[in-house]
Amino acid sequence: MDDVVFKPWIGSKYYLDNQFGLRVLVLGESHYHDGPVDPDFTTGVVKYLAQSVRNSFFTKIATLLLKKEKGTWLSDAERADVWEHVAFYNYIQSYVGESSRIRPTEDMWLSAQKPFLAVIKELKQEVVLVLGFSLWSRFSRLALEGPEFCVIKHPSTGFRYQEWTPKFVDALNKAKILKQGDKL
């Protein structure tokens, strides 16, 4: 993974004994920061915003991963633990800007392809939960085969669990059927 700038978060149970029975990669779009580039930035973000504090973005993803309904209160332990069962990677491999709502440049999108292909080869995920249609439209052209893709609306605005959780459950079920077929 030589071209990867921000190493992916890989939960301690991602490869073995995870609650999904499948390797799930949560794919985000980008990081926002104004400091120096740190290869462990993604890991630090997940440890802090997903596991230590109650951040809306990461809590929504955790709620979806746990197949809970809107309004369900996740305990700190539940919220932190689910991230030990998945991997998380941001597609864009440079800071997009200092704050959210700044869009990646065309060069950022293009330069992200090669690192992404290296990450998916390394992680061997069976399901990819894609956070946002814009992100999907950019990398779906790579014609990837293998994992089951579940594309949902970006969790930052207008997110509806009753719409997106069934799609995630469906992707898990399809991937499990494929995995069982591979064993026959």
The major beta sheet can be summarized as: 5 strands, mixed
Spatial strand arrangement across the major sheet: 1-3-2-4-5
Based on Cα principal axes, name the global outline. globular
Report the β-strand fraction as a percent range.
Answer: 5-15%
Mean pLDDT: 90
The Rg value, from CA coordinates, equals 16 Å
Low-confidence stretches: none
Alpha plus pi helix count? 6
Topology as a string of helices (H) and strands (E): EEHHHEHEHEH
What is the structural class?
A: alpha/beta
Please estimate the helix content.
40-55%
Count the strands? 5
Distance between the termini: 32 Å
Question: Your description of this structure?
Answer:
There is one protein chain. The model has no long low-confidence stretch (mean pLDDT 90). A 5-stranded mixed β-sheet has the order 1-3-2-4-5. Helix 1 packs antiparallel against helix 3 and helix 2 packs across helix 3. The longest helix has 23 residues. The chain is an alpha/beta fold. It has 6 helices and 5 strands, in the order E-E-H-H-H-E-H-E-H-E-H. Strand 4, helix 5 and strand 5 form a beta-alpha-beta unit.
